[in-house]
Structures are given as C-alpha cells and as structure tokens.
Input
Amino acid sequence: MPTLIHLTCLLAVLHGWVRCDLFDNPCRIIPNGAHEEQTTIDVNATLGCHNGSLRWDYPRGGVRVHFHYKGLPMFKVCLKDRLGGDVFEIYDVTYNVQHALPVARDSPKEVCTGFHHSEAVILFQAPEMMVYMGEVAYRIQPLYLPGK
Output
C-alpha cells in the first residue's frame, strides 16, 4: 500500500516539480572511496542498465566507470547534465587516449562517445574546489547493423 510520501512524490513528479527515487535504483552509480584528490577508483556500471546516472556526493579525485553492453557488437555512451554534472571534467578513456566529453549545465543536448566494442570507459574527474554533488545521466545506445 502506498504511503503518503509515495503519493506526494508521485504528484510532484507528475507535475514536473521534482524527480524522485522511491526505491533503490540499480542503474544509479554512486562512487565510494575516491576521497583524496589524487585517487582514481574503478567501478562497473550494472550490466543490463541502458539508462541511469552517476551521482557523486562531495566528489574528490576521479572515477573510471566501465560500461558493458552484451548482445550487440558495438555501442556508444551518451551523457547529459542531470544536476550539477557540469562540475566534472569527463573523458572517454577507453583506448588509453583522453577524448573530452563536455557536459553543459541544464542543456537537453547529449554528448556521446564514439562506438566501442564490448566496453567503454568514462573518466569523471572531480573539480579541485569542494562541491556538494554532481549528477550526470547516461544512456547506452547500441549500433544496430543492417540485417541483424
């Protein structure tokens, strides 16, 4: 049975006032462990999540997110600001070459990687100054081949 908080949140979402996560979201990446400026940690996005976000509270250092897509030969990862995501320096580092992925604040426009085989690695670098949080939405887009 829904509680008053669930109903209030549902009404707020329907009116476009807020976004609510009422339950644990397996497609939300919440880094733990990168608490020092020089530390970069590796995390894996949940396999099977084609849409989600990286929400990082009090970001420090860096996070390399490994995205995988099973079932199709190639895919790309598209990103856009969700809430303060423009504070991060974001790079596609899949082939050990940094390609900047500039995410603009409050922009509906996505920025995408090139197409990758089996794995894409995205580096989120925290700003030098302390900020409360940043969140970037991600979407995995498969390459559909003709005749498949």
Observations:
- The domain at 25-142 is CATH 2.60.120.290 (Jelly Rolls).
- Helices lie at 4-14.
- The chain has one domain: 25-142.
- The radius of gyration is 16 Å.
